[in-house]
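User: Can you fold this complex?
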Amino acid sequence: MSVPEDLKYAETHEWVRIDKTIGTVGITDHAQAELTDIVYVELPKVGAKLTAKQPAAVVESVKAASDIYSPVSGEVTEVNSQLESTPALVNTAPYAEGWLFKVQLEEGSDLSELKDAAAYRAQIGAE
Amino acid sequence: MFAAMASTPSELQRTPLYGEHLRLRAKLIGFGGWEMPVYYTSILEEHQAVRQRAGIFDISHMGELEISGPKAPEWLNSMLTNNLGRLSIGEGQYTLMLNDHGGVIDDLLVYRRSENGYFLVVNAAKIPEDVSWLQDHQVEGVSVSDQSQLFAAVAVQGPNAAKVFQTIGELPTRNHIGKFKLGRAPMLVARTGYTGEDGFEAFFPAETAAEVWSAFLELGKAEGLTPCGLGARDTLRLEACYPLNGSDLSPDTTPLEAGLSIFVDLKKTGFIGQEPLLRQAEVGLSRRLVAVKLAPKSPPPRPHYPVSVESEVVGELTSGTQSPTLGVGIGLGYVKIPFTKPGQVIEVDVRGRKFPATVEKKPLYKRNVSS
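Assistant: Here's the predicted assembly.
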């Protein structure tokens, strides 16, 4: 199970890549493997204000709909519109083409609650 | 994303094939009180395997009941909706067991095994309820025996299913059951299924389960026989518009409302639930179970999503999924008459947003019979 070193992780299986004041959000390899066969992704609107740990998107597999919680607070600047036609990118490339949305981080965002790769690996029981 | 992932309550029952599922690294879930594979590799892959080649499902969780005795034919006919009198020995039929209000207790398959002997295949979650309902109404000259613990069972489904089975003997025709042997295991094989494809359900002693499973996988190797879980079983049955008891059928819905009237003989003498059904047939139905199809690029519909016509709520979905074959959302749901005709434009409410859909003719998927 892939857990890249350069990302931060939420306990609820989302990742965020911080680049200066922009956070790119997706779900982890472990999460996509558990969900399998993602057939629909409902993304937030550009401009929407997100609060950390609150539902921001919905990912639907054949079996069920799952809420995705934003790992960070801020305003949505961009969403991955490729997922409208190709939701399976979340399965095939969860850390790359399968990203969900980008957030302009709220000023003074506290990211200390997020886990590093080692802590997330420990959570999911991966080596 | 999900707080408690894959927690498995310990009180779930396991089938005799549990060890095989673990060996194949199946993802297991609780279903009807049983710990069952939801998929082995992927619901979509397993679905396509059944539509294009063949799939094998563990259906050992289902219940097997034996009803026999000199009074069995007459008595059982009074407990079920379809006409048992039409069955020759070796033949089976889909039928329903109703409560006093005409609501569904269970839907099942009944096979006539001998002059006065019947083999019933019932839903896993309903075994105790079915057995006590039957025993509560039992009369002298009838024996009711729950053999569910003695049997393991598999369904082999798909266009190549007959090729998998052909080596074990002369195959039964549609809705018929016969006795066979695979290795040292005796088995009952019925030509039936829950996928919309040609296929078989095989019932064999629980202690032979693992060897029979392996024997089938070996027999089916050249036919692309693939282990399939309940996830694919649900998408397959939904495309074929087979109702699922507990979702599309319940003690509060009648078989007439569910569109199952061809499995109800309203003219035969005396069965439980007949009076309310006759009244309902006379007064007319107020709702029906319909198949719906969403427009492309809509989210998959799910049970309990409201259905509306011009902003008025006219029903609710009881099942829903993304159809792997059609590539769009499909579902079953109870909709008020007159909004039940194929072609009727409706809207399905998904998390507060309305998505266009249509009522469709059942089934949503029909196999190519020439294949």
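The domain at 286-360 of chain B is CATH 2.40.30.110 (Elongation Factor Tu (Ef-tu); domain 3). Chain B is about 20% helix and 35% strand.
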